[in-house]
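Entry 0007
Protein: alpha-L-rhamnosidase
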Amino acid sequence: MRAIRLQTEYLTRPLGLGITKPRFYWNCEGGSVQTAYQIIARKNGETVWDSGKVASASMTHICYGGKPLQSRDRIDWQVRLWDENDHPGEWSGSWFEVGLLKKADWSAKWMTGDYRPGKNVRYPVDCFRKTFPVKGTVARARLYITACGLYEARLNGRRVGRYCLAPGCTDYRKRLQYQTYDVADFLAAYNTLEIQLADGWYRGSVGCYGMTNVFGRESKIFCQMEITYADGSRNTIISDDSWSWSNDGPCRFADLKDGEIYDARRKPSYRGRARLTKAPEDMILAAADNVCPTEQEHFPAKLIITPAGKKVLDFGQNLAGFLSFTVHGEKGQQIKLRLGEMLDEKGEFTQKNIQSVKPVREVGKLGEVFLAVGMGGKLPGEKQMTPKQEILFTCSGGIDHYKTAFAVSGFRYALIETEIEVDPQAFEAIAVYSDMEQTGSFRCSNGKVNQLFHNTLWSMKGNFLDVPTDCPTRERLGWTGDAQIFFETGAYLMNTAPFFRKWLRDVKDGQKKDGSLSAVVPYNGLSLMYDNTGASVGWADAVVLVPYRYWKRYGDRRILRENYQTMRKLAMFMIQNTGHKNKKAARANPYNKYVYEKGFHLGEWLEPEEFQKKITAGHRALHTEEATAYLHYTMSCMAEIAGELQQQEDEKLFAEYADGAVKAYDYLFLKSGTIDTDRQAKLVRPLALGLLSGEKKSNVEKRLKQAVEKGAYCVGTGFLSTPFVLPVLTGAGYTETAYKMLENERAPGWLAEINAGATTIWEDWEGRVSRNHYSPGAVCQWLFETVAGIRPDGENHFKIAPVPGGTLTYAEAGYQSIYGKIESRWTRTEDGVRYTIIVPANTTAEVIFPDGDRCVIAAGCHEFERKQPGGMRMSSFLQAAQQPAFMSMQQRGKCPYFTGGGNDENL
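Output (structure tokens):
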């Protein structure tokens, strides 16, 4: 047996790690059960930790136990395993390198361009340059770099690293990420380091109203390159006022949302000098400990001529990313491109679904109030649309190659306006998102359901760029509710462990003293809007629900310890705000202490239009039902977390409020013994959040089935309840009802969007706003957990409980879990269903069939045939009791596993 897929802190060979007690992870291959492991860690060839032989089947969260780590330490570590026969396997190795841990490690100075930024002025990209020699044989070279703004570094003409839109998105008032790059192979005898600096999140256009200069007016760079020679000496190149600078290069304007203006006739002159500037105050400078945003898939263009004769490029996939092209025009000729998600009802290019109106000039605090209450049109002065998502390119006269660098757009289409004869094949769309490994796959006999899965995956890709955003266009904000709603689905689709660890640091940074926070994390301005909605249930609860689900998904107790005080502060905020707003109602309710309704709540956001209650500046509807239900749910999770961390007093308090909220909910909403409504969310929520039992539960389940049938199996839920509706139906035994809702092709519904040509998930069921919004795609959790039946169930163990149904003749899914890749397939046969399950080495799975029969299986490939009406027969192929833990390629070839399951070496 040997270890494969070695990782440190969920990352493969991380460079610049900021965690001083990192943990090790691996999967097993070539045996049945891991009975022991040994880890040896070395620094410069010297052993700094030897775990010895540890009798354990654990292969996750193995904490480094050696000498304390220091800045710049590079640790080579290797692991070997003992199998079920106590035979040791071969060594497998990996490495990680520590970043700069202390403020004293930095000798760099903050530098900026030699100008004083003014109000209502946008500036070209700054260009910095430093030349320096190398004096000796280089053993190691690292560039540590960050910026207030966006940077791109080139050393001797080569781009440094793959990180796009560095240093990423944080609350720049509190935290700034730096990156570490290995640049040893870039160096020559004499060297030129060039850095471009754009506005980015720091002072560029952000949020739904395109606010600018949210964090400051002065963008700046902070970097140091450390060159270590073979003799042990070190040379350090730092950012300071010795650098050359100019802002007369080709990129005349660069904004994350509005796009770029690029003049290929220009080159930076570097005639000026960088200017020293103040360091940001009270800011944590830290390693991201995360995967970085990178360029991913490339999509070629197809030319469309619209009914009005406009030229539009169609890239076939709605995505978030860059645009690149090659063009040969006369000097000074221009190409203008506008990027958008859709064509209108006449087949013309439009941006109407992604744009808002904002003043051209900065609005100030009073103007923010007008924008927040929907009265931006009443502000004085010239207006403009935001985001522009526009590229204006001027040709040099030769062959020009262009690729966006400092703007990311959400688009499928590009309206092209130019007199130049262009070749559509010279244009590409490039997806840009955080470099998370895809861990989930799904396929079934219904091609439209497969497209739903595809659309959900692509909406995740379009919105997981260092922050889990709501859409890549109009807002592009880290709404907390969207993140918690989608967490489980996202964790099936991709390895989100490092991504959400980073975002939870953003959450901690954004929490207020009273325990509440903004509905948008990280902070992006317009606090009047986002702070007022931040305490809403379903959104604020992300503080608790994301760490809770992270713990359950990855078995990571450290995430609970690191975030416990943040979670507890939110829970105490909720407790301190219980009770009816109305004093008469409070006196009349014996369970008033456990009612939750105070504050502003968004409720069941974006239900189908017929159920929506409009929110206006002068009217705030009470959402007592939603809020009290979430009080129970959140307090239940907090009680479990407190128990896990042995916080007994907290556990008792949170359990009291969890139980009390059930009584309050029953008193307010279940006096008749049921809930009589066709509004699906009102029926789904108490069932999903554990507020019902016994006859009342059965009554509400039946009423939900009636409501779904009456609604012709269309989806009637909004953000909060859409992830729950199908699991609740199947949990109640209404499997065919759930499948009919999934496969329904009428609006509102998932497949209606497919029929309308969607390649991503729409924000609303009507398709009038963002068309790249992952939240309603949270239904894909049900595809994994119910259709294919895959559920992680504790360390090294799974539950496999597939539930065939609907018109599907087969379904299959694979999930590369933290413990290995688990796969499940079922196929209808003439007299029943055949199930095929592949269990990874060093794990077990409990298989539960729809009729309730169950068995426990070990690693290997297993087949079961279930005849109708009952009875189980295990295939003679690979009997469960005789499973080898690792199948050879020949053995795998006999197993009818999946066409969409990935590469053989990953099975």
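Curator remark: The two ends are 15 Å apart (CA to CA). The domain at 295-354+389-434 is CATH 2.60.120.260 (Jelly Rolls).
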